[in-house]
Every structure is written in C-alpha cells, then in structure tokens.
Amino acid sequence: MGPLVVNEIITENANLFLAFLIGIGFGFVLEVNGFSSSRRLAGMFYGYDTTVLKVFFTGAIVAAVGLLFMSLFNWIDLSYIYINPTYLWSSLGGGVIMGAGFILGGYCPGTSVCAASIGKLDAMAFLGGIVIGIFIFIEGFPMWEGFYNAKFLGSPLLSDIFGTSRGLITFLIILVALGMFWVGEWAEKHFARDDYKLNQK
Amino acid sequence: MNPYLGGVLLGLVLILAFWVSGRGLGASGAVKSAVVAGVDLVAPGHAENTAYYKDYHESHPSPLKSWLVLEMLGVLVGGFLSGAIAGRLKFRVEKSPKITNKTRIIFAVIGGIFFGFGSQLGRGCTSGSALTGMAVLSLSGFLSMAAIFGTAFALAYFARKLWI
Q: In Å, how far is A189's CA from the nearest CA of chain B?
C-alpha cells in the first residue's frame, strides 16, 4: 500500500500538499519540545539539558520499529523507501563541519527554521549563515568535487554491514538508546544550572 | 512536553513521511533550492554556465516546487502555531548571560556557514541524513550522527562561554 506516491495512490501534487502538512507536524513537534531554543539544543553538549538526545533518539527508534511493523503487515514496501547513499569521506567530513557549526551556532537547519518562526533573531542569523555556506559550497564545488564523491560504498544498511537482520539491529539500537537515556537523565541532575530553567516554562 | 512522548510524536511524523512519500524529513535541501532559485533570479547567465547549477536543474526542473521546500514552509507554520499556543512568540536573541547579543549573532552566522557547507558535503543535515538515515538503518545516517554529535561534544569545551 505505502508509500502512497510511489504506488500512484496519490498524485504528485497531492504529495506536495501532504509535504506541507507533514512539515506543519514536524515544526509543531520541534517547537513544542523546545527545539526552538538554542540553549536547550546546546545543553546536550554540556549535560544541563539532554531533551534533544531523548527526543531525537526516541523519534529514530519509533520510526525504525514502526517501519518494520508496517512492512510486516504489508502496509509499506520498504524497497521503495529512499536509503541515503554512503560516501565515506564526505559523510564524515560533512558531519565534522556540521558538528562545529552546531556548537558555534546552537542550531541545525531544521531547528533554526522552527526557532525563526517564533521570532528568535539568532536563528534568523543562523539561517542567513546557512545560505552563505551552501552558496560557498556550490560556487567552489570543483574544488571539493573529488572529496565529495570519494569512497562510494553504495547504500548499505547497518544490517548489511553486520550480516544480520534489520530486526536484530533495531533491537540493539533500542538497547543503546536506553543506555543513552539513562546517561542523559543522570547528566541533567549532575550538570544542572541555576541560570537555566528546564522545559523553558 | 515529556521528551519521550515528544520523541514518539516525532517518530510518528517521520513514519507518515515514509508512508506517504517514501522519504524521510529534511531541511537543508530546501535552503539549497532557495539558494539555486535566488541565483537563477539574480544571475541567470552564471547559473546557465556553471556545471553545478545545470546538473541541479536537470534533476529539479523547478527548484522551489519541491517536497522539501513545501515541507519546510510547513515547519514555519507548525513552529509558529506551537509558539503561538504556548505564548512564546517574541523577537529576541537567546544566549548565555555572559555574552552580548552581538557576539551571539556573529557566532550564529559563523555556525550557520559551517552547517550550511557541511550539510552539502555530507549530503544532508541532522534531519535528512542523521535522523532519517538512522530510522532506515542506513550506514550513512549513523556516520553522520556520530560525526555531528561527536564533533560538537569534542568542541564543547572551547565554545563553553557561548552557552554556560
């Protein structure tokens, strides 16, 4: 049955309209969880607020388990789901540069749009920076094209790498996530700050 | 909201995207579409003569009529609605009490430049590469996640004055 657009159950224009509605849900969930706050986002890296860790990993494992269940009941054909390709060096290099941007700027692209929507001026400045960064990447592309396309490994899943089932890998990821949640809860008590209020009440 | 409940809601939105469109959530791709559309408008000759823009137009005939652009417009609306309901709509700069607004804005722009560049090199940001990639168990999703969060942790000490 799913994905609806791939199986031509809905038209391309309906797909775009639903993208808008899905975006509303995404933006609402980000904001209601306080992802519009750069101090909350940065808090994960100092331990005083690990909400991001909890929301982010709960979201990832709920989606991973949900996809497996839906495929079990034939509600979705996983072979039609887009899998991000792996280019080893640019994946890691891009991630390192993004990590530096995260700790300096306090947002990622999605959360900066969410924060800008409620009037955060630092988020608007961050968004302006993203525009500049993408423009630099495009204009200078011939300089890093080789690195960008190096070490292409196809689109492997973790289960392919370890030669096991998607179900077992998902189960192990859930265990790892539970361990991280425990560390997060501990850190919030240990690194609590007087000048910062949790849950931005 | 309880963060674990919040995470479940985020997961459900992500599943909905997979079920409807066969793809996950994203963010930086929409900004890239806007950048390309902007260059088309301001310097059409440059866009026609540069390989990167030509390739992009071949795969995206009209850059702004894309899934990610509409999704991000939705994020603006959804974030605004949540902020309005909770009474959080206000023009302000958020920062550590130890730094000035000017310092915060300068570092926000620098951080944005890094993130924008890195998102293109890494073929997606925290949403499209890390979150979505992890949900489908892709190797690149876990690599992105580890590189982004690992680097931010490693540099946290040096950037501490910005936040604590």
A: 16
